[in-house]
Amino acid sequence: MGKYPTWKGGSCTECSVPVLTSPTLVAPIDDSHKISRWVCRQQPRLVPGKHRQAIGELLDELYEIHAIAFSTTRDVMRNGIPNQAAALLENPSLSEGHRRALEIKTMFHDSQYSRALEPDNMAQVENQTRDLMQHLALLLEEHRGNSEAWIFGNQPTILDAHAAVLVARMMDLERLDLIPDRVRVYANSVKETAEWEQLTQGQPTFSNASLGPATNR
């Protein structure tokens, strides 16, 4: 995956912009949705053919949500969203590509994040999220058995990788009003899997300095 982002001591030191690099890529991929598509091309089992349409539709819906509007801590709600990308631009050792990505992120922050916590935007995002959660609940009702952790059965898909994390984040931030019971049960089942424990080591989905780096736990 190259040096974007660089992980040191269990924390991401340059993760304001997700960037995927590989010797097989013509250029780095700096868009989360495009990165997901690339991963799926390398691992086709993440998008089973018979569920391809449903997975694609929900992922498209998920990426339309500006989730920063509700997935922030109370401190951020009070003080505003910090422009971490701007701070990282002070690093003189940044590569040209990473610097450009951070510059774009800074411009996006100034044009979008400054309004993200306004009441009208918050209401829009919450409505989008409720719709997404209802659509996810319908998928779970149709496909997930009571003894299965994942949406479509015994094997996780790229949709699980996105949906479970989003729902877990909302649960961590006590936004239970946006989560149907069926979706909450699903997320709790995923959080009990060995895969989740290996990735998170019991930490919440948002940064909590008091817990220390995951690798130290």
Question: In a nutshell, what does this entry contain?
Answer:
With 217 residues, this protein is an all-alpha fold. Helix content is 52%, strand content 2%.
Provide the descriptors you would attach to this structure in a database record.
9 helices, 2 strands, disordered N terminus, globular, Glutathione-S-Trfase_C_sf, 217 residues
Helix/strand-derived category reads: mainly alpha
Contiguous uncertain segments of 5+ residues: 1-15, 213-217
Shape: globular
Q: Please trace the helix and strand order, writing H or E for each element.
A: EEHHHHHHHHH
Query: Oligomerization state of this entry?
Result: single chain
Q: What's the overall average pLDDT, rounded?
A: 78
Largest sheet: 2 strands, antiparallel
How many DSSP-defined strands?
A: 2
Cα radius of gyration in angstroms = 18 Å
Q: Beta-strand level of the residues, as a percent range? A: under 5%
Helix content: 40-55%
What's the helix count?
9
Give the termini separation: 25 Å
Name the strands of the widest sheet in spatial order: 1-2
Description:
With 217 residues, this protein is an all-alpha fold. The chain is 52% helix and 2% strand. The protein has nine helices and two strands, in the order E-E-H-H-H-H-H-H-H-H-H. It has helices at residues 32-42, 52-63, 74-79, 84-88, 96-116, 119-143, 158-172, 181-191, 194-200, and strands at residues 7-8, 11-12. It has a two-stranded antiparallel ribbon with strand order 1-2. A hairpin with a 2-residue loop joins strand 1 and strand 2. Helix 2 (52-63) runs antiparallel to helix 6, helix 2 runs parallel beside helix 7 and helix 6 (119-143) crosses helix 8. The longest helix has 25 residues, at 119-143. The protein is globular and about 55 Å long. Residues 1-15 and 213-217 have low confidence and may be disordered.
